[in-house]
């Protein structure tokens, strides 16, 4: 079993980006600028946004954090989005999810200018991805593909089972791996909460990508020997063992699944760092105007 070290690969990618930014600035270009809107103070979102800001500092980006209270109206949140759309110094921005229940996430996502949608959530970017056109790919699927590439994990002709059909991870992941590309050509089965006899699918899988958000859902008896397992789950659970009072749990019961795997991602330190690196990569593309001229 080989552990897929997302933190190491993420830092390598950020080092490459930092060198490119240094060259850009030396040639007279402005620093790339990533902004984030954070509504409320959800613990997980706070941690994630803080990691993004640190990554911006590491690669030489400018960054802006806009904080709004959890009772902000949808109208005022849309105004903040509109302001960033029209701020020419900001190359890309994100609205950190999840949002409070009184706000329609789809309305917010669709309000983001596609050329600044470095999270890759806007319908135009999703549609361009499906059609294999230049776009910003959702950061988590983009990061997973990069990990598979970094560890030279063969995907062509393999059977991949994706568990979870969210628009953020599961659905785009299934599309990317089925594409006729170097890191695609999988036969993909997309499973979800209504899938009957899920184990009958996962036991045939060469690659399993688990993105349900249910801690330790994937057990050893659901995985065949030699499978590659990518754990996307990051659920905060109460823990007396941690100074913070909580710990992150993945969707995979790691201790029992890992011995059966050829490769597996840990939680934390697997997919999470790659999501941040991919967001930084998308922002660099936005600054260079490589997707939307």
Structure write-up:
This protein is of the alpha/beta class. The chain has two domains: 28-113, Rossmann fold (3-Layer(aba) Sandwich), CATH 3.40.50.10860; 139-271, Rossmann fold (3-Layer(aba) Sandwich). The chain has helices at 6-26, 43-59, 74-85, 105-111, 123-130, 139-150, 170-178, 198-202, 254-257, 271-287; strands spanning 2-3, 33-39, 62-68, 92-95, 159-163, 187-191, 207-210, 227-231, 235-238, 246-249, 261-264. The mean pLDDT is 94.
Number of strands: 11
Q: Helicity level, as a percent range?
A: 25-40%
Q: CATH class of the largest domain, anyone?
A: Alpha Beta
CATH architecture of the largest domain, please? 3-Layer(aba) Sandwich
And the CATH topology of the largest domain?
Rossmann fold
Q: So how many helices?
A: 10
The major pleated sheet works out as: 6 strands, parallel
- Overall form: globular
Placed side by side, the strands forming the largest sheet appear as: 1-11-8-7-5-6
How would you state the average pLDDT, rounded? 94
Label this structure with key terms:
alpha/beta; six-stranded parallel sheet; Rossmann fold; 293 residues; 38% helix; globular; 10 helices
